[in-house]
Write a structure and sequence with these properties.
Strand content: 25-35%
Strand order of the largest sheet: 6-7-8-3-9-10
Radius of gyration: 17 Å
Number of strands: 10
CATH topology of one domain: Rossmann fold
Bound molecules: adenosine-5'-triphosphate, magnesium ion
Structural class: alpha/beta
CATH class of one domain: Alpha Beta
CATH superfamily of one domain: P-loop containing nucleotide triphosphate hydrolases
CATH architecture of one domain: 3-Layer(aba) Sandwich
Distance between the termini: 33 Å
Number of helices: 9
Order of helices and strands: EEEHEEHEHHHEHEHEEHH
């Protein structure tokens, strides 16, 4: 069953149309990757789905409910949660406070236990719990952004370039965390520049080219396609 269904989605900024009718499905408990060149519209697609920009045409159904015109809050409450590319968080608040706030926003009653669980899953954050989030390194902030999203107990995660700018060892850690989260049953829509890693992990994948889906298939199948190798895997980091 698809937890997220997108049909003919059109979105853009002002007079510029960026997405020209994108259709895709995210199956429950699966990982779906979206790859594409810079400027193809990947971030715009996630922004439209988390309802930060309007959906001009088409529709989006999440968990059986139409979210095409829902508010960003309603979408998050329904369980569709984005980890933002810019890793926005409350820089002046401590790591622990950031997690608490994220949990309260989700209306959970077990917030304290959830925070403890996050420090177990993200061991690098534990000794830094009292530090201001703004003082963390880029990689640590990425971990915190991920942990914040998980505090909301999402049914599905939208991830925008989670490995961007990270050292190779941390890239591994982030991909491990993504795989682990899927194994826990969370559905994941993953936008990644690291096409090789994303396709290797993905159950299903789409290629977004200048605002339209040009190709789709099983992650492993796309990895073997010549047009993918040439365009997206040529100089991908191992
Ligand atoms: N806030 C904005 N206002 C106007 N145009 C925008 C805005 N954000 C993005 N765009 C334009 O929309 C197009 C798609 O951008 P988008 O950020 O979705 O691409 P992307 O696939 O995420 O690229 P990247 O791989 O570089 O992150 C680009 O041409 C970009 O210039
Ligand atoms: Mg982007």
């Amino acid at each position: 069953m698809a937890i997220l269904e997108v049909e003919g989605l059109v979105a853009g900024y002002g007079r510029i149309e960026v997405l020209h009718g994108v259709s895709l499905r995210l199956q429950e408990h699966s990982l779906c990757a979206i790859i594409g060149a810079n400027g193809a519209g990947k971030t715009t697609l996630l922004a439209a789905l988390s309802r930060l920009i309007p959906i001009r045409e088409g529709r989006a159904i999440f968990d059986g409910r139409e979210i095409t015109h829902a508010s960003s809050h309603a979408v998050a409450r329904a369980g569709l949660v984005q980890v933002p590319e810019g890793r926005r968080m409350l820089a002046g608040m401590s790591v622990e406070e950031n997690l608490l706030v994220a949990g309260e926003g989700a209306g959970g009653r077990t917030v304290g236990a959830d925070v403890a669980a996050m420090f177990e899953r993200f061991p690098t954050l534990a000794p830094r719990r009292a530090l201001p989030a703004g003082s963390l390194s880029g990689g640590e902030q990425q971990m915190l952004a991920f942990a914040r999203a998980l505090m909301a107990h999402p049914k599905a995660l939208l991830l925008d370039e989670p490995s961007m700018g990270l050292a190779p060892r941390l890239v591994e850690t982030v991909f491990d965390l993504i795989a682990e989260e899927r194994a826990r049953g969370t559905s994941i829509l993953l936008v990644e520049q690291n096409a090789r890693k994303a396709l290797a992990l993905a159950d299903h994948a789409y290629v977004l080219e200048r605002g339209s889906i040009s190709l789709e298939g099983k992650g492993a199948d796309l990895l073997g396609r010549e047009e993918i190798t040439a365009a997206y895997l040529g100089e991908a980091t191992p």
